[in-house]
């Protein structure tokens, strides 16, 4: 817990320097335009309850119980074949939430630049 508090203090201190924020924003832009992993830029967020609403989750359609049972029998064979595909799923930060957050940071950075001039 003390390590997390220390990380928050350091991040808060460097966030007050506009050059740091510019660099992080440019790295995010590079990753989103040139391709790359979002987890190379960030590993998570400090405060998940900061007012940015997460995107609405999709609700799956209702499933017929008999059809689901029939599908379960055939999916066992398919599961072994597709297990390699599942290993390639990226488990980093959600790109939609990251876009919202980086957009908010970018907007605030523009306000800061105007105030400094």
Automatic annotation (TrEMBL):
Signal peptide: none annotated. Residues 72-91 have a biased composition (Acidic residues). Residues 17-117 form the RNA polymerase sigma factor 70 non-essential domain. It comes from the Bacteria. GO terms for biological process: DNA-templated transcription initiation. GO terms for molecular function: DNA binding; sigma factor activity. Residues 46-95 are annotated as: Disordered. Pfam families: Sigma70_ner. InterPro entries: RNA_pol_sigma_70_non-ess, RNA_pol_sigma_r2. This is RpoD. The gene is rpoD.
């Amino acid at each position: 817990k003390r390590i997390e508090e220390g990380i928050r203090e350091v991040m808060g201190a460097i966030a007050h320097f506009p050059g740091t924020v510019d660099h992080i924003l440019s790295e995010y832009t590079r990753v989103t335009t040139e391709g790359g992993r979002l987890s190379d830029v960030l590993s998570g967020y400090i405060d998940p309850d900061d007012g940015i609403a997460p995107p609405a989750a999709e609700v799956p359609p209702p499933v017929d119980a008999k059809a689901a049972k029939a599908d379960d029998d055939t999916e066992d064979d398919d599961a072994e074949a597709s297990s390699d595909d599942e290993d390639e799923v990226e488990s980093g930060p959600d790109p939609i939430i990251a876009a919202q957050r980086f957009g908010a940071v970018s907007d605030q950075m523009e306000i800061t630049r105007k105030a400094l001039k």
